[in-house]
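job 3f2a | input accepted
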Amino acid sequence: MAVDRRRFIKNGLLAGGALITSPYVFSKGALAAGEIKVGVLFSLTGGLSIIEKSLHDATMMAISEINAKGGVKGMKITAVAEDGASDPKTYNEKASKLVIQDKVPTVFGSYTSASRKAVLPVFEKRNNLYFYPTYYEGFECSKNVVYTGAVPNQQLSNFIPWIIKTLGKKKFFIVGSNYIYPREMAKVSKILIEKNGGQWIADEYLELGHSEWGSMVNKIKSSGCDVVLSNVVGDSVVAFYREYKNQGLSHDKLPICATVTSEIEIAAMGAEYAVGSFTSFPYFQAIDTDRNKAFVERYRAFVKDPKAVTHHALESSYFQVYLWKQAVEKAAEITPAAIREAVKGQEFDAPNGHVKIEPENLHTWMTPRIAQWQADGQGKIIDAYKEPIFPLPYVAYGETPTNLFCTGKGLDSSKLKT
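job 3f2a | predicted structure (418 res):
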């Protein structure tokens, strides 16, 4: 049976013993009788919509499932959806609208680090809360963001040593899209490459959305590298892999090892262009568990596409809504600050396995995996950790589980290496 707003607030007070004074609790913009509003902010148009539409859909699917099972303490979640339009400036404008005008206590959104950086000032200035579902480069410590995608120690710390020791590849050509994520991931990669006895012989970038890859592939062919580390993002991935094969390069001799290429880019380019290449992610659609298989089928039913694929950022977009739900149920009030405190330590059995929000840095414990792409467009998991590992956003700068740079007190910048 649904409960009204007063009863929810009363129950929260009884559970937490806290005073409710925030305008978010009583604002009609944030709460109506039997309703909780949240923001959903992804690119539904533009070059990045190839990925971000699926993140939007996974978020809406989680909200739909929660509502179908009674909502949050009997209250329905209502999504206020906005289009980031693949443009950081638009992201900033839409985030401001959601926080200031719609007065939502939480927003789920962003795919690129550029869009996350664009909205971050809005959430920090207004002390609001942003759930970010994408694997990213780390080097960020905000009390206003819950990070549910992989960080470098969950994606590169396993991948680079594996490439060198298992594939026997030591000469890396690093290529990426020209913005913060690929450049920071390259920085982490170089440290790990050198630490494990390899060398990087090139570090090249093309603009996000660039589709003419002929010259870059020529550079790769003539460089003398024996492996390509790709941090290429968005629809540029499709153009890159197609040009790679069109110029006669094969992944069995000169493999692309990627930090971004997922099931959705493979489906867009055609599986034949990626067969034999590799990607490192905590989640692949091919994870062979009943929980994941059921998730894939539910997603396909939700988007009404029997061939739809799932991928890491999509899966994080899904499970982070459940972590938020649990936090709201624990919190004594529906405010960004209360939800943030309540989300610390929240755990959930996600399609990828068990996940947990690390209380110190608001990043997520996850299990690293490596997959090789097959002719059916799916990744065959060929290496996986046995359990989730501690998220370390500053691993490239020496951060360890016993020497954290980012804690609940904030970033200790004195520990950063120049």
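job 3f2a | The first strand starts at residue 31 and ends at 32.
job 3f2a | closed
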